[in-house]
Amino acid sequence: MKFVTFKNPDGETRAGLLINDGIVDINKASKGELPSDLLGFLKNQERYLPVVQKMIMTESKPDFMLDEVQLQTPLPNPPSFRDFMSFEKHVANSRAKTNSSVPEQWYQIPVFYFSNHHVIVGPEASVKVPNKTKCLDFELEIACIIGKQGTNIKADEAEDYIFGFSILNDWSARDLQAQEMMVGLGPAKGKDFATSIGPYIITKDEIEKFKSGKGYDLKMTAKINGKQYTNGNWNEIHYSFGEMIERASDSVTLYPGDIIGSGTVGWGCIGELPAEKQRWLQPGDVVELEIEQLGTLKNYIVE
User: Fold this and answer.
1) CA distances from 104 to 92, 97, 168, 213 (A)
2) Which CATH code is given to the segment(s) 81-302?
């Protein structure tokens, strides 16, 4: 199943189910049994999913075609957003810029930072260049959506807590990030202004057949103005989402709608390129992130 949040022709923001090129308004199709927002759905998804499955079996007719609505980020109001750093190649590439290697501690624990969950945007949205940066970058990542509340979740039990996945773009102001991290804290202000997620959330059962290693055999690509910058694969991930969830939930409760980011796939950002090949994002640029089965997430850079 593919879940979306969309604005209908009347300007109302609604939760929907994407079927081919049509969208079913789940609240309308269920005659009010299902909520009109995805966070409300996730909070009771074990009760609501059978209702959706029945709708699919009865072949509910779409309320709108895709070109009649405006897709929003599928989860506009997540309770929290933790972003990990789980691809070894990205860490190695980034550390090489300072003539250093991957820290030993990185192999001991999956690490994360908290980002701003109030600045989530979706497909086709514009992203403003932050006031004080000259080095705007994208990051090609996977978002894992938590579907059930839990504390001290073990990695081998974490599948039960995952609702689904989406594409994530962790926009980064590299100059701001470099300056603040010299102090010894995380990349807070360098990541504070926008995160893109979308175009939909695909439930984990839909991609089960692509399981490979600790991830999935699904290609990940990034384009700027139509030119491909990245060609990675989800199965290159070093830490599984189960391991990330175990770390995040240690002595802490995770809630439905919490977002766990994978971190950047190897070569999945401009910052990993050699200095002579770097060209930071500018107003007018179009960034497209694609992950097989998860769709394409397109955004526009503006002043």
Assistant:
1) 12, 17, 27, 22
2) 3.90.850.10
What residues pair up with 112 in beta bridges, in sequence order?
A: 84
Q: Report pTM.
A: 0.97
Strand, coil or helix: 111: coil
Alpha helices of 79-184 — where are they, by DSSP H?
Answer: 88-96, 174-181
What gap in Å lies between CA 242 and CA 209, rounded to an integer?
Answer: 17
Query: For residues 141 and 83, is the Cβ–Cβ distance under 8 A?
Result: yes
Question: What is each CA distance from 7 to 55, 263, 300, in whole angstroms?
Answer: 21, 29, 19
Q: Domain residues of the chain, as ranges? A: 2-72, 81-302
pLDDT in tens, 240-254: 999 999 999 999 999
Say which residue the tokens 């192999």 belong to: 107
pLDDT tens-digit series, residues 112-169: 999 999 999 999 999 999 999 999 999 999 999 999 999 999 999 999 999 999 999 9
DSSP secondary structure string for all residues of 45-99: HHHHHHHHHHHHHTTPPPSEEGGGSEEE-S-SS-S-EEEE---HHHHHHHHHTTT
